[in-house]
Batch of 3 targets.
Target 1
Amino acid sequence: MTRLGRIVFLAACALVFAFLLAPLLVIVPLSFNAEPYFTFTEGMLRLDADAFSLRWYRQVASDAVWRRALGNSLAIGAAATALATALGTLAAMGLAHPAMPGRRLAMGLLISPMVTPLVISAAGMFFFYSSLGLAQTHAGLILAHAALGTPFVVITVTATLSAFDRNLTRAAAGLGAGPWRTFRRVELPLIAPGVVSGALFAFAVSFDEVVVVLFMAGEAQRTIPRQMWAGVR
């Protein structure tokens, strides 16, 4: 890629990021509004110090319900991310292997949670986990969120593995390294960017998910999005 082409590419990426993140960044100053209105007041536009306040942060920090919801979101998100990352990475490595039969069918099944409407997935998960006694439990919610996050890990790791040189694993095996050591010392360091990207996507999906929580969670498993939905109501 020429220097001019690289500059154009980076500029296009910057514009896309700005387009996607600008609406989110507007919310940050609104959270410091001293008035109970979700809009910029005249005082905020004048940068008046009295128009800004930490009252909403203090209210959340002092409310036991919000603290519990935050703890649930972080704990469930971390556990679901770890499970989705492990399963998604292993699945991607299997799908990337040339000897894997039915790779297209397996890939379609693995990424199906991404294309299936969440309401349908949530209803199916509720009936399935209810039959196992896992509805309204942290374990059931972790498994449900892991199922939603795994496709993102599979896609990112598969994309990384597409440029992976298989001769490296053959060389490691020829030098006496076992499968686990080859994975830990050769494959994992090279596919780490895809694994980390997939894990971030999986955590974001879990932390922001509300539809499955509405179906699956009880009062003890209420998360931040579920609490916000209850507040809006």
Target 2
Amino acid sequence: MEIAADTHIHIYPVHDAAALIRGAARRLLRAAPSPAAVPVLFLAEGRGIHFFDRLLSGTHGLPGSFKVEGAAEPGSVRVTWDEGESAWILAGRQLVTAERVEILALALTGEIEDGLEASAAVQAVLDRGGVPVLAWAPGKWMFKRAGVVGRLLEDFGPGLLLLGDTSLRPLGWPRPAPMRDPDRVILAGSDPLPLAGEESEAGRYGVRIEGDFDRRRPLSSLRRLLVDPAASRRPIGRRNPPWRAGGRLFRHNRRSPAPR
């Protein structure tokens, strides 16, 4: 089965959640080779953000035309809407480490605190059964933090720590050295920023994965597909051109001077 996944999704209170989910699913399906692909949104929720919990509790604020169905296995829901379309949404967190690098904890229920040292954060995700992803972000793999990135890659092999590319890495930007390692799994995601209008970015950049998907155990089967060395993966969609990435970051930094 073919999965079309955005592996770096935020749904902030400022967003129109219905527009984000619907638009992301449609963009992923347009980019996927097969129209029968299954769209999947992997949440990477930061501190204080709990949209997945709101999906479970029914306080999500989605229109009545949207239906949320929880799976027998915790950590995933299927959202359908009146056009007959649907998407799977998986729980997950985004951690900011003591060194200010970002670790995504994909396919993970519950929370892990911010502020851990990077290696401890990765190990905590592994211990909880999630998939740790070292996420690229502007400046986060450079200068002093380049040493942190290097140590993480030494301490956690390709089967343990994945790399996350993002639509905010501008087209034409050289591929960072860690992403040139052929043994490392690279996932792709859109990384919507906490700004109104960023809904339209969701699903623009993702990854196509081929493998067995069990709708009865979606979290477990999708988690396995992320790390399975035999699974076929390739990026779909496209990253932002420089002017678009720069504009997004400029608007974000103007409104939120604190580091992301």
Target 3
Amino acid sequence: MTIYIKNMVCLRCKMAIETVLQEVGINYESVDLGEVILKDTPTEKLISAFKDRIEAIGFELLDDQKKTMIEKTKTSLRELVQGGEIDEHFSLTEYVTKHIYREYSTVSKLFTQLEGITLEQFFILQKIEKTKEWLAYNEYSLSEISYKLGYSSMAYLSNQFKKITGLTPSAFKANHAGLRKGIDDVIQTTK
């Protein structure tokens, strides 16, 4: 049995869910971002206790197939951006179709309905947040960042960065303190 959980974005989230599973007494096989594979079907009482505990720490148990598909899409795109190996000729349409196993138009329309922004906007916001992280910590030059995130040029990334943040990448780098949002806050500020 698989259960799906909203708002899991990092390794700490996985560890928090594992801790709650153990505390509640639910046997599980594995925990990944957004999903838990259970060894057996837990009782309604255990599921209810689990649901209450994870909601108290900012997660949500998903039982709606549409929400589950959108969470899977968001998790997949976050992992792609965090990996920092996006090809310059990357196609969001092909990626979603291949990894979510649904027509892009279906996922895109549903994403906009549920999240209030387009799938493309979400993807761009994730890339800009990753750019902020790399700039803030001086991990890569802007040229390297544009290559790692699949931008055709440094100028294109700079223009998109300024459009979204109001700052050029160099101005952000000089004044980055307090400007970076948590990855799970990206959508909240766009609604």
